[in-house]
Amino acid sequence: MSIEISPYETIENRQFGIHEKIIIDDSIFDSIEFRDGKITFSFENCFFRTLYIENRTNIDFKDISILFSYCYIENIYVEQIESENISVLFTNSIISGKIDNKNLGLVSIYNCLMNDSLFLMKLKKVDISYGETTINPSKWRKFLRQFSLSINDYKENRFYVYEFEKLTFYSEEDTTNKFGVFKENYKNYDYNKIRFRFTDQEKAEFKISLKLIYNPKIDDESTRILNSKFHSLEVSGTASGEVQIENCDIDNIYLHNFSTKESCNFYNIRPFRNSSDRKFEIKRSNLDKFWFDNVLFNSYQLISLYRNKISQTIFSSCEFPVNYKDFEKFIVVENIHYPEKKDYNYNKLRYETLLQLKKTLENSGNFQESLKFQSVANESLLKIENISNWDKVILSINSFSNDHGVSIKKPLIALFISSIFLYILYLISLNKIFIFKDSIDWKLFGYYFSFLDITHRTDFLASKKEGLNGFSLMIDYINKIILGFFIYQFIASFRKYGKK
């Protein structure tokens, strides 16, 4: 059934049938003058089950806009559009469906919830935004009550945006200290404005998922995702224009077969919810023109990097794990949702991936983090079966002594523990300790520092006449070897920032 529409008139408070059509043709605009700044067709507080918008002729009219405000649209389909001056706008509505047409001028979605999901395909310009400061609680309450709707049924919001030219996704949060419904003087005028602000817990209940797919045959201009909170963000394909993802809280990030011809910037990215479902997956992607700036990788539960090119990727001010246990979250699997399914050469693949990260960080001058990745890479190398036993021994010793050149504390502590233990054995062999005497020989404490000097004489504490024996000489010799090793390991780790 076709809905009769007239330019610059509003249809309000209507509940339409199961299948409805809005047909836009030339005859509607006979004798109609264009009004700049006015919405052409408006629907407010309307209920649709299935709605089709069609246009089969090119219309000679400057701009044609269709606005749905406080409307429920269970399914909307916009696929047959010929005229390039038509825009579809949604504000404060509950919608789902499919908008697929390369001629549409603009699709704008503001403060809307999804009945299920919304597919936006082959569009010139897509604007999706949420503004907390413009929420009108009384209108939303009236809208939901009018059609017997519950907001709790619409907290899963999924957007699928495919093969677009320009995308903007933006959110503006209220910065006041008030929560819930309150009144506020509006811009110093004489009347008050009713406002509403969500708590962080209430915001966490709304899960927004965004999936972007680029087509290399379509010259997309730009992608800007700013100041938003997502349950998940998934990106794939080859972007032609610049991609900016900045100041966003994203629980799950999936970059699959993704690359860009211009640049892609991830700035100030962290998870939003404190849950176990926080994943960051990059697989089969070319990240040579990517810049990760102030990304809190350490806050994600799992991070999978699988067969990517990252030789020219820039990492700056990012947070990575601190110790070996936390580095276990860095995995190399084809599907992060099944981390137990690993390639047969998993440890080799993980070793080479960690080395790529190490090299990338080193090229940017971040030697501290690069050495961590070098250390963890050596731990993966230790687990590779086909390396020689001698290499495994060397790696095991280096892991124990100074974490492959990263830890200063380990060799220093090991030096004192081993030297004290051997010094006690040395004194026992000379019968100078654990004997019953009325007083303690305090000089033995001073001689300990001579024992630490690996160039000390063998008779620095006792001569052969005073009890120096073969057991004492053996302990002294072993001590010099062990001390020399730990001193070298300490110096090697102390010079870690001087490594190239």
Structure description:
The chain has 500 residues and is α/β, with parallel strands linked by helices. The protein contains 8 helices and 25 strands. The strands form 2 sheets. It has a 23-stranded parallel β-sheet that branches. The chain has a two-stranded antiparallel sheet with strand order 14-15. Strand 14 and strand 15 (192-197) form a beta hairpin. Helix 4 crosses helix 5 and helix 6 (409-429) packs antiparallel against helix 8 (470-494). The N and C termini lie far apart (73 Å).
Any descriptors?
two-stranded antiparallel ribbon; 500 residues; 23-stranded parallel sheet; alpha/beta
Coarse structural class: alpha/beta
Most strands sheet: 23 strands, parallel
Low-confidence stretches: none
Helix fraction by DSSP (H/I, runs of at least 4): 10-25%
Query: Looking at the structure, what is the overall shape?
Result: elongated
Number of helices: 8
Terminal residue distance? 73 Å
Beta content: 25-35%
Q: Total number of β-strand segments?
A: 25
Residue-averaged pLDDT? 87
Write a short abstract of this structure.
With 500 residues, the chain is of the alpha/beta class. It is 24% helix and 34% strand.
